[in-house]
Amino acid sequence: MLLIGLLLSVAVSVAATPGGIGGTGIEPGGIGGTGINPGGIGGTGIVAIGPVQRFGSIFVNGGEYELPSETRYRVDGSPADARSVHLGDMVRVNAVDRGGRLDAIEVRIDHALIGRITQIDSTENRLIVLGQTVQLQPSTLLRTVDDKPLHPAALAVGDVVRISGLDQGAGRWQAMRLVQLTGSKARGKADNRFLLRGTLEATRPATRQVHIGGAWLTVAPGAWPALPAVGSRVLARGLQGGGGDVITAVEREHAVEAPVGTKLVMVGYVQSQALGLESHGLRVQGASALLNAQLESAASVPTGGPALIEGVLLDARTVVVERVIAGVDAMRWALPPLAGAQSEAAKPKAAETSQGSVGISGADLAGRVPQVPTVTAPMSPNVMMPNITPPVMPVVPQVPQMPNPISPPTLPQPPSVTTPSVSPPNVGMPTMPGMPQVPSLPRP
User: What are the DUF5666 domain coordinates in residue numbering (predicted)?
Assistant: First the structure.
C-alpha cells in the first residue's frame, strides 16, 4: 500500500508540473539537458537502454524507435548524427509514445571503454583492456576502423579497440561490438587517448589513484580536485603511454536523464552493490516480493546472461521494477519477424556482415537481408470444359393406392328376454301347542 500510494503521489506531481512533454513533467530547457524545448512534442515518455539490434529506424530491446528529423545524437557526451549509430552499439534512447509510434527524441551512444589490448586469451575469447576483462561472444560484431568485417585472429596485443558492451560488474564486460581503431601497421603511431566507464569504488589520495572497474589508475594533478564522490558512476578519460595510464578528466554520469514516472525498458546484468541491486547504475527494486526474488536470482547467476527489466522511474536513480526476464539474448530479444526485404535506406552499411563476428549472429543478419526479386506467377491456361448434357432419369411408376379398409360385419342383436316376476308364497307361522300345567305338590 505504501508503494501504491507513493506511485500515485508521483503521478499526481508529474501531471501537475507545467511546461512538460505530454504531461510527463519535463521542465523547460529540454530532456536531461539536451536543449529540446517543450511544447509540440506530446506523448508518454519512455527510455530504452540496450544494444542496437536492427535498422529500419532502430530496434532496441525489441522495440522500434523512429528517428524523426528533430532526433538528437550524442556519442560519449559529444554531439553527433545518425551516421554514428551502428549495430551492436549500446544506446540510451529517450523517446515519446505517440499513439503507438515511438519517436526518439535523443539517442545516446555510450562506449564501455577505448584503449589498448594488453592480453589476449584466444581459447576463452577474452581480451584485457585498461585492466578490464572483455568477453567476446558468438554474436559480438568485430569491425575495422573503416567499418569492414574483422576476423578475431587479426586482433593483437597493442591494438587500440573501442568496445560497446554490457557491464557484468567487477571489471568484466560482455562485448556487443568491437572496433579495431589501430592495427599492427599503425601500432604506436595512433591516438593514445583512452576512455573508461564504471563505478568509482575507492581512492588513494596519497598517490592520486582511483579504483574503477577493478583497476587502479593514476589521476593527473589537475583532475584530482574535481573527482566525484566514491560510489558515483563515472566516465574517465586519459592518456596511455610509457608512464602508464593517466586519467586527465573524470566526470559523473547520470544513469537516466528523464523525469520521474517515465517508463524504462533495459537489458543488463543485475549486480549486488552496497545499497542494493543495480543495473546500468540504477537501483532496481521489485514492485512485489516475487519480483524482488527474481531480481535476486538474476544477480546470483551473472553467467546466466543479462536480464530484461521493465519498470517506472521512482527517482533519479531508482526503478520500480514491474517485469523481469532473466537470461535473454540482448541482440535478438523480442525482435519481430521481418515483414519483407528492407529498403536500401533502412539497411546498415555494406560492411555490416557476419564475417566480422566471432560467430554468426541472427540479429546481425536480420538487419542485412538482401532485396528479394519480385516473382510473377505464370497465368493459368483457359481450359474449355465440354458441354455435357446429363441423361434423363426414367419416371418412377406411381405406387398403386391401397384399397379402403373393410368394415367388420354388424353382429345381430340378441333377443330381449323379460325376466318373470316371481312372488314368494305367503306361509303362515304354525301355532305352537300350549304347555300343560304342572300340578301343585301337596304340602307335607
Answer: 115-177
List, in order, residues 6 or more apart from 415 with CB less than 8 Å away: none
- Give the H or E element holding residue 12: helix 2-15
Q: How far apart are CA 89 and CA 348, in angstroms?
A: 13
Beta carbons within 8 Å of 5's beta carbon, 6+ residues apart: none
CA 124 – CA 122 distance, rounded (Å): 6
Q: Where are the beta strands (DSSP E) in 56-189?
A: 58-60, 63-65, 72-75, 78-80, 90-98, 101-109, 113-121, 126-129, 132-135, 141-144, 160-169, 172-182
Cell numbers standing for residue 357: 563476428
Cβ–Cβ under 8 Å, residues 128 and 119: yes
Using one digit for the tens of pLDDT, what is the confidence trace for 311-363? Answer: 999 999 999 999 999 999 999 999 999 876 454 334 444 334 344 555 433 33
- Band (pLDDT 50/70/90 cuts) for residue 30 is very low
Q: Cell 598517490 sits at which residue?
A: 207
CB 324 within 8 A of CB 289: no
**Rounded to 5 degrees, what are φ and ψ at 273?**
-120, 175
Spatial CB neighbours of 53, under 8 Å, sequence gap ≥ 6: 59, 60, 61, 62, 87, 331, 332, 333, 335, 363, 366, 367
Contacts for 325 with CB less than 8 Å, ≥ 6 apart: 307, 308
Total-model pTM: 0.70
3-state secondary structure of 278: strand
